[in-house]
Write a structure and sequence with these properties.
There is one protein chain. The protein has one domain (10-85). 55% of the residues lie in helices and 14% in strands. It contains 3 helices and 3 strands. Strands 1-3-2 form a 3-stranded antiparallel β-sheet, covered by helices on one side. Helix 1 packs antiparallel against helix 2. The chain is elongated, with a radius of gyration of 16 Å.
Length: 86
């Protein structure tokens, strides 16, 4: 291990349907997360830290999870927040 390196340099190949792959790619670009995606090629993402890994997970989850499941999850969050405020 090289102690002078402060960030990890990890490339991860993400298997995503072609129609979703470009949407994920563009969102990662907006978040300044390095990613590469060629025609008929898998999406490759460079994750430099834990925050990047969480952002990647979140982007893929938003694309792959059915809308009703996301809405249900959000409703649970609102209920927990409401209970904390009471």
């Amino acid at each position: 291990m090289n102690p002078s390196r402060s960030k990890l340099e990890v490339g991860q190949v993400i298997e995503i349907e072609p129609v979703d792959r470009w949407q994920v790619y563009h969102r990662l670009q907006e978040l300044s997360i390095r990613s590469w995606c060629g025609t008929n090629q898998p999406l490759t993402v460079q994750i430099d830290d834990v925050a990047g890994a969480i952002q990647l997970w979140s982007v893929v989850r938003q694309i792959k999870t059915p809308r009703r499941d996301l809405a249900s999850w959000l409703e649970c969050c609102w209920q927990l927040r409401s209970e904390q405020n009471n």
